[in-house]
Amino acid sequence: MLICCLLIVSSGGFVRAQNLSPDVLRVHHKAVVIDTHTDTPMNLLKDGFNLAGSHTLPSRVDIPRLREGEVDAVFFALFTPQRDRTPETYEETYKLAYQMLDSTRVMVGRNPAKVAMAASPAEIIRLSKKNRTAVCLGMENGFPLAKDITRVKEFYDRGVRYITLCHSANNDICDSSNDRKGPEHDGLSNFGKQVVAEMNRLGMIIDVSHISDKSFFDVVSLSKAPVIASHSSVRSVCDNPRNMSDAMLKALAGNGGVIQICILGSYIAPDDTSSVNYKKMKELYIKYNYGQYRNDDERREAHHAWDSIQQYFPPVLPTIAQAVDHIDYAVALMGIDHVGIGSDFDGGGGLADCADVADFPKITAELLKRGYSRQEINKIWGGNFLRVFREVERAAGKKPF
Questions:
Q1: Measured between alpha carbons, how far is 152 from 154 in angstroms, rounded to an integer?
Q2: What pTM did the predictor assign?
């Protein structure tokens, strides 16, 4: 998730999936479509937000649009911003993670005909065959663990199946790719090494998005199972520290892992630093300490301010074609078995011609246009991630059920 909020643009000009060719829709329908990262749980905490309702931008994920986009599984990330490490903030952030977790389960439970919670590859496939979307849980930022290793199992037992080890600042687990103060641990901390081992033991997927280059190489050298980058893109195509270098991509492929290309504008193409949007957003980043909020009231205030900027000063967004350039590059470097898609919708993700999850078939159309086979598209949309998920479970000694 980027610390900025979502872009508000009119959806009236977008061509929806129904206008695509029958061949495109047929290929998309047969794929197991998995989005490995959305920040939709933040919306569930807003008064009046109903996951079953039809929403407009800035919301990008709801049940009607998940079904329209034929999304077989979506990971709802329990995002918590990094804060000062005090007993009070540990407790507040821990409670916030549970608020999002519990709200997700309640909302999904109210709509059993169309969605259901899932915590394994087998459950995702079973639900897909029943034409229901699997809602899975991830955690973005390990801050709620509060240096308590037992909380890894606690969240696993509540259905969380990956942890993004940090966010936009260093935490107790590892260094971040974006901390303005520079590295604190020179990669993984001693506690972070325990977290990696415990996640391997449990069969929980390690997510390396947001972490520093050194932290990444530490994880790959220690993990006994493949890892994922749930929402990252390619640094050689767009030079952003949140994206992955060629060396990282090669190491990720050697680990057996997958990069889930993130369709957030700043990770797909460089920002226009002369635009009003960029300048106003930068002012807000500084005002709100780059997302390290002092309390929940400040977090809500910042999100409201960001929504307003995006409404009145929207940026020019990259396109699906530019996002697929990242897929092309990663496939050429790593091979077809190591690339997927994680939108970061409801956390900053969105393209000029891909406003929400209902537009996902248009990505399939672009992949077909570039000559990807049906089998290759199946791997990109979900097959590669499911393979990693199964391997993580096998490494922990878990049997498929």
A1: 5
A2: 0.91
Q: Are 126 and 106 in contact (CB under 8 A)?
A: no
Buried b (16+ CB within 10 A) or exposed e, 337-372: bbbbbbbbbbbbbbbbbbbbbbbbbbbbbbbbeeeb
What are the tens digits of pLDDT across the range 110-153?
Answer: 999 999 999 999 999 999 999 999 999 999 999 999 999 999 99
pLDDT of 400: 65
Would you tell me how many other CB atoms lie within 10 Å of the CB of residue 285?
16
In the predicted model, is pLDDT for residue 9 greater than 70?
no
**Longest distance between any two alpha carbons in the chain, whole Å:** 56
Size of the chain, expressed as the number of residues it contains: 401
User: What CATH topology corresponds to 17-270+318-395?
Assistant: TIM Barrel (3.20.20)
- Rounded Cα distance between 385 and 401, Å, is 18
C-alpha distances (whole Å) from 318 to each of 4, 229, 264, 267, 354 are: 17, 21, 9, 10, 10
**What H or E segment, with its residue span, contains residue 323?**
helix 320-334
To which H or E segment does residue 360 belong? Answer: helix 360-369
Contact 61, 148 (CB under 8 A): no
- Number of helices followed by number of strands (H, E) in the chain: 16, 9
How large is the average pLDDT for residues 254-263? 98
